[in-house]
Design a protein that fits this description.
This protein is 26% helix and 26% strand. The protein is of the alpha+beta class. It folds into two domains: 4-50, no CATH class; 77-172, no CATH class. Bound molecules: zinc ion (ZN). Zinc ion binds next to strand 4 and helix 4.
Protein backbone atom coordinates (compact mmCIF):
# COMPACT_ATOMS: atom_id res chain seq x y z
CA UNK A 1 0.00 0.00 0.00
CA UNK A 2 1.14 3.51 -0.79
CA UNK A 3 2.02 5.56 2.26
CA UNK A 4 0.06 8.80 2.36
CA UNK A 5 0.31 12.12 4.17
CA UNK A 6 -2.41 14.63 4.98
CA UNK A 7 -1.33 17.97 3.55
CA UNK A 8 -2.59 20.82 5.70
CA UNK A 9 -1.43 23.48 3.25
CA UNK A 10 -3.34 22.20 0.22
CA UNK A 11 -6.01 20.35 2.24
CA UNK A 12 -5.43 17.09 0.40
CA UNK A 13 -4.05 13.61 0.85
CA UNK A 14 -0.91 12.86 -1.16
CA UNK A 15 1.40 9.91 -1.37
CA UNK A 16 4.47 10.38 0.76
CA UNK A 17 6.75 10.22 -2.29
CA UNK A 18 4.71 12.89 -4.13
CA UNK A 19 4.90 15.12 -1.04
CA UNK A 20 8.67 14.65 -0.75
CA UNK A 21 9.21 15.33 -4.47
CA UNK A 22 7.09 18.51 -4.28
CA UNK A 23 9.12 19.68 -1.31
CA UNK A 24 12.41 19.12 -3.18
CA UNK A 25 11.17 20.73 -6.41
CA UNK A 26 9.73 23.75 -4.55
CA UNK A 27 13.20 24.31 -3.08
CA UNK A 28 15.15 23.83 -6.33
CA UNK A 29 16.32 26.93 -8.19
CA UNK A 30 13.92 26.11 -11.06
CA UNK A 31 11.07 25.57 -8.63
CA UNK A 32 11.75 28.82 -6.79
CA UNK A 33 12.01 30.73 -10.10
CA UNK A 34 8.71 29.30 -11.29
CA UNK A 35 7.01 29.84 -7.90
CA UNK A 36 6.33 26.10 -7.93
CA UNK A 37 4.01 25.11 -5.02
CA UNK A 38 5.38 27.76 -2.72
CA UNK A 39 3.56 26.26 0.27
CA UNK A 40 5.70 23.13 -0.13
CA UNK A 41 8.90 25.12 0.20
CA UNK A 42 9.60 25.24 3.91
CA UNK A 43 6.88 22.76 4.84
CA UNK A 44 7.59 20.57 7.88
CA UNK A 45 5.35 17.78 6.56
CA UNK A 46 7.35 17.84 3.33
CA UNK A 47 10.57 17.63 5.34
CA UNK A 48 9.19 14.64 7.21
CA UNK A 49 8.18 12.92 3.97
CA UNK A 50 11.65 13.57 2.60
CA UNK A 51 13.28 12.37 5.82
CA UNK A 52 15.46 15.48 5.99
CA UNK A 53 14.95 19.02 7.22
CA UNK A 54 17.68 20.45 4.98
CA UNK A 55 15.24 23.01 3.51
CA UNK A 56 13.76 24.08 6.81
CA UNK A 57 15.28 27.28 8.13
CA UNK A 58 14.88 27.31 11.86
CA UNK A 59 15.89 29.77 14.50
CA UNK A 60 19.30 28.93 15.96
CA UNK A 61 17.64 28.90 19.37
CA UNK A 62 15.14 26.20 18.41
CA UNK A 63 15.47 23.26 20.83
CA UNK A 64 18.73 24.71 22.14
CA UNK A 65 19.60 24.79 25.83
CA UNK A 66 19.60 28.56 26.15
CA UNK A 67 17.36 29.93 28.88
CA UNK A 68 14.71 32.24 27.36
CA UNK A 69 14.93 34.50 30.42
CA UNK A 70 18.61 34.91 31.30
CA UNK A 71 20.14 33.63 28.02
CA UNK A 72 22.54 31.36 29.89
CA UNK A 73 23.29 27.85 28.65
CA UNK A 74 21.68 25.26 30.87
CA UNK A 75 21.80 21.47 30.92
CA UNK A 76 18.06 21.39 31.48
CA UNK A 77 15.27 23.82 30.74
CA UNK A 78 11.97 23.67 32.64
CA UNK A 79 9.18 23.33 30.06
CA UNK A 80 11.89 23.83 27.43
CA UNK A 81 11.97 27.52 28.34
CA UNK A 82 13.86 28.55 31.45
CA UNK A 83 16.83 27.34 33.45
CA UNK A 84 16.56 25.84 36.92
CA UNK A 85 17.91 29.00 38.50
CA UNK A 86 15.31 31.23 36.81
CA UNK A 87 12.62 28.71 37.65
CA UNK A 88 13.66 28.76 41.33
CA UNK A 89 13.63 32.59 41.40
CA UNK A 90 10.14 32.45 39.96
CA UNK A 91 8.98 30.00 42.62
CA UNK A 92 10.50 32.09 45.41
CA UNK A 93 8.73 35.08 43.98
CA UNK A 94 5.44 33.21 43.96
CA UNK A 95 5.92 32.21 47.60
CA UNK A 96 7.29 35.63 48.59
CA UNK A 97 10.18 33.93 50.42
CA UNK A 98 13.76 33.23 49.43
CA UNK A 99 15.45 29.85 49.86
CA UNK A 100 16.33 30.69 53.47
CA UNK A 101 12.69 31.41 54.23
CA UNK A 102 13.18 35.18 54.48
CA UNK A 103 10.73 37.60 52.97
CA UNK A 104 11.76 38.82 49.53
CA UNK A 105 12.89 42.43 49.23
CA UNK A 106 12.40 42.55 45.51
CA UNK A 107 9.16 41.30 44.05
CA UNK A 108 9.51 40.49 40.38
CA UNK A 109 6.73 40.89 37.90
CA UNK A 110 5.80 38.27 35.36
CA UNK A 111 3.35 38.76 32.56
CA UNK A 112 1.41 36.51 30.27
CA UNK A 113 2.63 37.15 26.74
CA UNK A 114 0.90 36.71 23.43
CA UNK A 115 3.09 36.41 20.35
CA UNK A 116 1.84 36.51 16.77
CA UNK A 117 4.12 35.08 14.12
CA UNK A 118 4.25 33.94 10.50
CA UNK A 119 5.03 30.28 9.96
CA UNK A 120 7.46 28.94 7.37
CA UNK A 121 4.52 28.24 5.07
CA UNK A 122 3.08 31.74 5.44
CA UNK A 123 0.26 31.11 7.91
CA UNK A 124 -0.26 33.49 10.83
CA UNK A 125 -0.22 31.85 14.25
CA UNK A 126 -0.56 33.00 17.83
CA UNK A 127 1.04 31.46 20.89
CA UNK A 128 0.80 32.39 24.57
CA UNK A 129 3.30 32.06 27.38
CA UNK A 130 2.07 32.24 30.95
CA UNK A 131 4.97 34.04 32.63
CA UNK A 132 7.59 36.17 31.00
CA UNK A 133 9.47 39.19 32.33
CA UNK A 134 10.21 41.01 29.09
CA UNK A 135 9.21 41.05 25.45
CA UNK A 136 12.66 39.74 24.57
CA UNK A 137 12.01 36.72 26.75
CA UNK A 138 8.72 36.19 24.90
CA UNK A 139 10.59 36.40 21.58
CA UNK A 140 13.19 33.87 22.71
CA UNK A 141 10.42 31.60 24.04
CA UNK A 142 8.92 31.45 20.54
CA UNK A 143 12.33 30.88 18.95
CA UNK A 144 13.04 28.04 21.38
CA UNK A 145 9.76 26.20 21.03
CA UNK A 146 8.13 26.82 17.64
CA UNK A 147 9.52 24.59 14.88
CA UNK A 148 7.86 26.52 12.05
CA UNK A 149 8.64 30.10 13.04
CA UNK A 150 9.55 32.36 10.14
CA UNK A 151 8.96 35.87 11.44
CA UNK A 152 7.54 37.42 14.58
CA UNK A 153 4.83 39.99 13.89
CA UNK A 154 3.74 41.16 17.32
CA UNK A 155 4.55 40.63 20.99
CA UNK A 156 2.09 41.78 23.63
CA UNK A 157 2.61 41.53 27.37
CA UNK A 158 -0.71 41.21 29.13
CA UNK A 159 -1.60 42.16 32.66
CA UNK A 160 -4.68 40.27 33.67
CA UNK A 161 -6.25 42.38 36.39
CA UNK A 162 -9.74 41.71 37.85
CA UNK A 163 -11.29 44.18 35.43
CA UNK A 164 -10.10 42.34 32.38
CA UNK A 165 -7.09 42.40 30.17
CA UNK A 166 -4.93 45.48 30.12
CA UNK A 167 -1.90 46.18 28.01
CA UNK A 168 1.30 46.83 29.92
CA UNK A 169 3.11 50.06 29.18
CA UNK A 170 6.61 49.62 27.85
CA UNK A 171 7.95 51.63 30.79
CA UNK A 172 6.55 49.10 33.27
CA UNK A 173 8.48 46.20 31.85
CA UNK A 174 12.07 45.46 32.54
CA UNK A 175 14.74 45.58 29.91
CA UNK A 176 14.33 46.51 26.32
CA UNK A 177 11.00 46.19 24.58
CA UNK A 178 12.44 46.33 21.10
CA UNK A 179 11.45 43.53 18.79
CA UNK A 180 14.40 42.54 16.70
ZN1 LIG B 1 17.74 31.42 33.23
Amino acid sequence: MVETVSCLEYSAVFSKSFCAASHVKANSSDGIGAMFRTKCRYCLIGAESLGSDQYVKRSVLFKSKVCARCKRQSSRLVNGLRCISCYNRERENFLGLNKHGNKLKLVRRYYPARVTFITLTGAVREVEFKKVMTKNEARRSVELTQPDLAKILKIILLDRCPHGTRLVNASETQGTTQIN
